[in-house]
Write a structure and sequence with these properties.
Blueprint (H helix, E strand, L loop, with lengths): L2 H5 L13 E6 L10 H8 L4 E7 L8 H6 L7 E2 L2 H7 L6 E4 L10 H12 L3 E4 L9 H10 L3 E3 L23 E6 L6 H14 L4 E5 L2 H6 L3 E2 L7 H19 L3 E5 L13 H6 L4 E6 L19 H10 L3 E7 L6 H15 L3 E2 L1 H4 L5 H9 L5
Parallel strand pairs: 1-2, 1-4, 2-3, 4-5, 5-6, 7-10, 7-11, 8-9, 8-10, 11-12, 12-13
Amino acid sequence: MSRLLRKATDPASLHSSVMPAPALILAPGQFNARRAKTAFGLIRGTSRYEILGVIDPDQVGLDAGVVVDGTPRGIPIFASVAEACQQVRVHPEWAIIGITQHGGRLSDPIKEILTATVQAGVGLVNGLHEPLSELPELCLLAEQKGVELLDIRKSRPWHELRFWSGTIRTVRAPRIAVLGTDCALGKRTTTYWLWELCNASGIRTEMIYTGQTGWLLGMEYGFILDATMNDFVTGELEAEIVRCDQEQSPDLILLEGQSALRNPAGPCGAEYLCSAEAKGVILQHAPGRTYFRGIERLKWSIPSLENELALIRQYGATPLGITLNAEGLSPDEARSVQQDYERTLGLPVLLPLEEGLDRLLPTVQSFLAHPDTH
């Protein structure tokens, strides 16, 4: 058993400095933008794993990169883990669950695939709420096969968690939060791409991840927000920002947002503006949506973009730009909405998937030149 496998039961022990571990992504029947956010993020790039292939019987033979964004990446899609193990150049150490399941629960079909994966001698990485460690038969099989089951969304013991202390006031680096008007908009992708752009432009930038995919991508600083007891969320956020600032002295810290300020199923965002004192905000929005995702049956309307920007300003932060998720819109409709927002809001409005984030760079540079004015 490799050193990596022996350490795998402790997610905090795996850092991006470790050689990338060969891995497969499990996305059976759901390798698409709506259900496979984690898988799509891993395909776009991760320093923690070497992605050997994707498991989805519905798209066998395709290149996973082409499915994600039209870019071939030499990552094939296989029908099963057994088939993948026969064809990839090195036996995978891990298979990562790359899809969402309703309520974070493992469905019976997924459990069957997990069992087959362990039977093939491949360990499992699970970012869903239901822990693998509570499946006795799977745990016994993993022990017999000599592989690990890694639940990265399992909360640490409460006595290891940190409470908010006010040390955020010692942080030198300005903070920009990438928030959204709903969940599942692409906030993490936008944050990651902006992190890459800023560093490529000479701005020493660090990113604080707050979801399981950020950890899977190999980011060094952060925590999994929705696996943390509520009383300690602000303390964990603060502590990671402080640690990042002390260890790296970056020019800028980006904060990956979760959910939305007014999502009734899981409001989130005030922590970034109040407890983390982010003075700049990039707001992600899907103009093609009317109701909050996942509770459409309740017809709970997403607030208007203008209204959400006003709320952010009430918190004392400055909106720096808008990034749009164009789902449900034709290319022409998306461009029209983009132009309308730019004209009425007086902010840069970008379509990250379609045009990248380069036009945000001058705004970020201006923010860094005068952070105290925001």
